[in-house]
Specification:
Blueprint (H helix, E strand, L loop, with lengths): L25 H8 L9 H9 L1 H7 L1
């Protein structure tokens, strides 16, 4: 039996063109990429993601 586990950064760098950054700038890039989704989050929720993206996921 084979088991493969992939994390959130598994695809980082796998494409020759733009791939989202891992870490501090991820939320900003998501807001720019998806202004109607990530970009439309209320400021109080967005603040949690800006401080710590993983914490923002836990809190939402």
């Amino acid at each position: 039996m084979n088991l493969i586990l992939l994390g959130a950064g598994a695809s980082h760098g796998s494409a020759p063109h733009f791939t989202p950054p891992i870490g501090a700038n991820l939320f900003l890039e998501l807001r720019c990429f998806d202004p109607l989704g990530w970009g439309a989050l209320p400021l109080d929720i967005a603040a949690d993601f800006e401080v710590d993206f993983e914490q923002g996921i836990d809190l939402s």
